[in-house]
Amino acid sequence: MYINEAKDNVGKFVEIKGWVYNMRTSGKIVFVLVRDGTGIMQCVVSKNEVSEDTFEKAKRLTQESSVIVRGTVREEKRAPFGYELDLKELEIVHLTQDYPITPKEHGVGFLMEHRHLWLRSKRQWAILRIRHRIAKSLRDFFDSRGFTLIDAPILTPAACEGTTTLFETDYFGEKAYLSQSGQLYMEAAAMAFGKVYCFGPAFRAEKSKTRRHLMEFWMLEPEVAYLTFEENLKLQEEMVSYVIQEVLKHCKTELEIIERDIKPLEKVVPPFPRLHYRDAIELLNKKGFNVKFGDDFGGDEETALSNEFEKPVFIHHFPKEIKAFYMQPDPDDPETVLAADLLAPEGYGEIIGGSQRIHDYDLLLKRMQENNLPIENYQWYLDLRKYGTVPHSGFGIGLERTLAWIAKLPHVRETIPFPRMLEKIYP
Ligand code: 4AD
Ligand code: MG
Questions:
Q1: What are the φ/ψ torsions at residue 86 (nearest 5 degrees)?
Q2: Looking at the CA of 213, which ligand is closest?
Q3: d(Cα 277, Cα 301) in Å, to the nearest integer?
Q4: What are the tens digits of pLDDT across the range 153-165?
Q5: Residues 242 and 164 in one domain
């Protein structure tokens, strides 16, 4: 049996294969918390109910020893996952000595160095299970709406999101880069399949140490032919609301373990507020910032803006100078582009970046030249504007930032199994 199947096994004699999470002895009883990856089961070993050998073995157990236990399942409201096992038999698979992570507090540096073991802790378990649920519900959302999954390449000849954060590698004597985004390839795919998405790792050599930046993160990027800017926002708010509903429905235990107050999450339903960039500038200045048209928002500005709203908020119509070359200028306000960032509430800031894309060949070429991009590497991308070009839009949602918000974590380092951070690549 797996521990999360306890509900259907009450009264039955079962076997659980796992590891000792924690234990305590009180005279004639040993309580052993056993985890198996699906949950934690409190096993009760009573001196009077088991053989002497079994009782002695139980007393010798140590944290993270691997064990196979057998006994009868009982409902017990006070146990961590609601059930208890009256242990009858115990097999020690491996007796662990000196496990480095004890239940007492360790510093983050120590824990990060031991990430390969830290993953076994209840809190990390809960966080990464929520990560799985977010990823699954994102995929389900697009699959149920007729999108086709198209995988984007990781090795690429050109930049998507600016040339300053590229990881360069050697490709048989030519320069290649780890992908910053699958978007450009999704644009090609959208012209072939209509509605597409990719979901994979993205790489950015971000030279800054912040609580929001990873060098390697996961991004889901939908792209849709004929989708307008406004329709793109609607797709995003429906997607984010769906993900929240799914997490609330399927991750009750996990949210409890991390002590997440779910009230703010329950408020996340469409429509989301929209704030024009120019109004955002005004709002920030009212709040004591000193910003003007043309300034990009950093973490502090985003936090201040997102704190103003209970739901995620779209900031839209950014000045074209601070945004990517492919974004469609607003015909009525050509200094700005038809782009929006979605800022998560509770101070979290940007989780999505999206836009309508330029579909006119000459305009795109001009914007690429203004950005000093090597045109020969993008000829295929320009081709898309030569053969049956149509207006189209898409966006990218970052999995780790979305999880940081939903789990209310102070830093993205716990949102990915093995984080890649500034100058840190172990383990
Ligand atoms: O805003 P970004 O740079 O947009 C793009 O990459 C577009 N090409 C997406 C598209 O339109 N298809 O990144 C999108 C999201 C951000 O909102 C953020 O959630 C996440 O990706 N992200 C990061 N997450 C963690 N660490 C980093 N260094 C990140 N950079 C971006
Ligand atoms: Mg962005």
A1: -80, 100
A2: 1
A3: 12
A4: 999 998 888 888 9
A5: yes
By alpha-carbon position, which residue is closest to atom 21 of ligand 1? 398
The pLDDT of residue 217: 98
Pick the atom of ligand 1 nearest to 402's CA. Answer: 19
Ligand 1 pocket residues where CB is under 6 Å: 160-161, 181, 183, 204, 206, 213-214, 217, 219, 221, 350-354, 394-396, 398, 400-401, 412
Query: Residue 427: inside a domain, yes or no?
Result: no
Number of domains, the chain: 2
CATH number of the structural domain spanning residue 21: 2.40.50.140
CATH number of 341's domain: 3.30.930.10
Nearest to 338 by CA among 362, 316, 366, 360: 316
Of 328, 322, 319, the C-alpha closest to 363 is: 328
- pTM of the predicted structure, to 2 decimals: 0.97
Atom of ligand 1 nearest to the CA of 186: 12
The residue segments making up the domain with residue 11 are: 3-94
Give the span between the Cα atoms of 268 and 272, in whole angstroms: 8
How far, in Å, is the centroid of ligand 1 from the Cα of 315?
Answer: 15
